[in-house]
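dumping these here so i dont lose them again. two proteins, back to back, each one seq then C-alpha cells. dont judge the mess
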Amino acid sequence: MILREQQETIKNIIKEFFDKMTIEVEIKEEKAEEDTFRVNLETEMPQLLIGENGQTLSEIQHVLKLILRKKLGPGFYLDLDVSNYKKKKRVYLEELAKTVADEVALNKEEKELPAMPASERRIIHLALSQRTDIVTESRGQEPDRHIVIKPALANQPVTSPEE
C-alpha cells in the first residue's frame, strides 16, 4: 500500500523532474491502487512527452521509476500517462481486437495484426480471452512479434495470454 506521504513525495518528484526539463505539466489525475500509483499529466505539448507509439512516455516512466525507487525504495509501481494516451490506446486496441476477431469468426480465415510491444499484445489477448470462436497467439521475434487471430477449430483448446 502506498502511504499518503509517499504519494505526496511521488508527486513532488514528478513535478521537479519536469520543471528541470523546463516542461510545464499539471497532474490532472492521481490514484493509488495497492502497489500502483497512477498519474495522468496534462501539458501543452503532449506529443513531446508521448513520442512515437508512446516510446518517449515509456522511457520517461522508466527514468522516473528509477528515481523514485532510489528515494522511496522498492514496493510500488508507477503508471505514468499523458493526456490519457494510454487509456485511449487501450480502448483503440480493444476495439481493433473485437473488430478483427468478428471478421475472423465470420470469414473463418486467420488475420495478422501489426507488430506491437508486449504490453499492447497483452491487451489484445485479454480482450479476446473469453471468446470461444477464435484463438489468439503471438508469433515472431521482437521487435516484429505480432498477434495472429485464428478461427477456433472443434476440440481445439483456447489459448490463454502468455504475455
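---- next one ----
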Amino acid sequence: MPPERLGQFEEIVRCVLGCVEYDDISKGGYGEGQLLNERLGTDCVYFGPGPKEMAHQVDEYVSIKELEQAAEVYTRLIEQVCSH
C-alpha cells in the first residue's frame, strides 16, 4: 500500500475504531500479503473483523458490531480511493 494510501487507511480506521493497532504479520503464517510483498515489492495490510485468535478455527466467529465496523472502514476506503 503506497504511503499516502496507508495514511488514508489509518485515518479511516482511527475514525471508525478509535485506534490503529499493528501485529507482526510474520508471526501469523504465510498469506497473500507476503506473496504480494515478495513478488511486487508493495507494502500490504491485513484488516478484518473478529478476534485474531479465532481466525480460521473450527469455531471461528465475528461479532455483528465488528462486522459492521469493518464494513464501514471498507466503504469509506473505497469511497475515498475512487473519488480521486
